[in-house]
What we know:
Layout: E1 21-23, E2 29-32, E3 53-58, E4 71-76, E5 88-90, E6 111-113, E7 129-137, E8 142-151, E9 158-162, E10 166-173, E11 176-180, E12 183-187, E13 191-195, E14 201-205, E15 211-218, E16 242-245, E17 253-263, E18 266-274, E19 279-284, E20 289-292, E21 313-318, E22 325-332, E23 335-337, E24 354-361, E25 376-379, H1 389-397, E26 403-405, E27 409-415, E28 420-421, H2 423-427
Parallel strand pairs: 9-17
Antiparallel strand pairs: 1-16, 2-19, 3-4, 4-19, 5-18, 6-25, 7-8, 7-28, 8-15, 10-13, 10-15, 11-12, 11-14, 13-20, 16-20, 17-18, 21-22, 22-27, 23-26, 24-25, 24-27
Amino acid sequence: xxxxxNDFVRATSRAKYNEGxxxxxxxxxxxxxxxxxxxxxxxSPQRCPYGLYAEQLSGTPFTAPRASNERTWLYRMRPTxxxxxxxxxxxxxxFRSAPTPDESGLPLAPMRWDPAPIPEDAxxxxxxxxxxxxxxxxxxxVGYAIHTYAVTESMETEVFxxxxxxxxxxxxxGNLRFFTEMGVIDAGPGEIVVIPRGLxxxxxxxxEDKARGYICENYGGAFTVxxxxxxxxxxxxxxxDFLTPLAAYERKDGxxxxxxxxxxGQFHACEIDHSPLDVVAWHGNYAPxxxxxxxxxxxxxxxxxxxxxxxxxxxxxxxxxxxxANIDFVIFPPRWLVAEDxxxxxxxxxxxxxxxxxxxxxxxxxxxxxFVPGGMxxxxxxxPHGPDADAFYAASLKxxxxxxxxxxxxxxxxxxxxxxxTKYAAELDTLQVKYPxxxxxxxxxxxxxxxxxxxx
Length: 456
Ligand SMILES: [Fe+2]
């Protein structure tokens, strides 16, 4: 605090607990790693401070409505035109793009997988991505891909950018450092990271020798926080808990770097003689961010019934049709279950939307067994699902008291598109081929002469 004046006491910085980051969702941020690197009152002076190049990165068309318009001005040592040089096609056969129809060969059914072990030679962020399902079409910028990642090697002199979509990353094992053009994000299990389309970055292991998790690659409009309606101005994912990094740069001239680009489902790479992570200052609202899922403030039924899972939406990527997401990111956080005279787990369900689930930690209440951290399940468009038999009978017959669901973070990627499983996902030996058997022990209890069922 500055106590030199008698008139007022003024803060000299933001809150310390978020050091290295700026709080807020979709703010117009500004940050400079060297004093005075940001031009004042204009974007593109005749000569930028420090001789930097000014460059605009547009995440939406220039003419997008103001509320959804996204762009950032970068002040960097070299312009991005020097990040492209003699590009050559490279093959990353497991990093797929939509569409991927008719390749799983599996019978139509709900699907579930145990976690896949992290191979010792999983490789880097670029080589360690495995696509599980896709929907829509990458060429029309509609739809998504869901991937898993396993990383055992840091990217030191390599950078990647994805022209096809933003990447929502859900770590499950290991801490990662995302060194992006706009700053450094450190994240681990329980946090998510969103990297916008077109932003260059490298991914480093951060204190551990391996990492694993899930990715949603969103080809459509950018993820945003959902409307809260009558819930009001607070709860769910609060904007102040989203963190965007302060500007950070590295200065590596004369060091060969490899740049890999994902573009319309293809991969291209080239070598350049410097690090492109050379942005000294930037301002704008098109930026990477992270969010700690443990800060989610859930709102739920406080008298009866089980509400729709949309109450737990963290981020939604709109499709253009109101209420119909290209893809939603939903979590099932620790919470109290207090509903009276109610079946508290999720109900039985068929859905026009397709539901992919993963588990970050703990146990998911509809599936006490068989769905463990690092695992995944897919309940595809109009395929039935719901509590397994053990969960159904336990929840139907137990004495209801307030109950804390603790140490659990499950999540769902829910999309309007039928999910097309890849051959890789279909052939994983972690696929639980007997998964639909979890519902077989459910009995028919109906007796027209006995209205009150007590469990027999
Ligand atoms: Fe469902």
